[in-house]
Amino acid sequence: MKSWRQSQILDVVDQEAVTSQEELRVRLSARGIQATQATISRDLKELGLVKRAGDGAYVRPGVERSSPATDEQLRRAVATLVRNFERVGNLVVVRTDPGQAQGVAVLVDRAQLPEVVGTIAGDDTILLIGRGEDASRALETRWNGLVKG
Hints:
alpha+beta, Arc Repressor Mutant, subunit A, Gyrase A, domain 2, 2 domains, four-stranded antiparallel beta sheet, two-stranded antiparallel sheet
């Protein structure tokens, strides 16, 4: 139970800006996890989560957060390195120039796109796993504008 709760805490703080233990308790409760403030406090300490300077949100130490510079790098990479992509349900298969898939996937990961759960990259292919068909459709629309200009 503890490891599941802690994995859910990490999932919540990776996806949202959570600034208080009470806010985190409410988010966990919405996921069916009941925990006291004291338990959450211990979990935060054990997980090594820290508060970000800018907005006070909990984050993993050393995790790069999305920034305008990262977003711009991703925009340029998609516009210049992506040759085509195809959405199949909640998955998006992206084709890049040879040897470029991993670099583009790293930028996708750093940008922390809300539509994307994760990426898997090879030499010239990336598999983007979407948070559902609607999220994948939104990602497809956004990338269509970047790739096709």
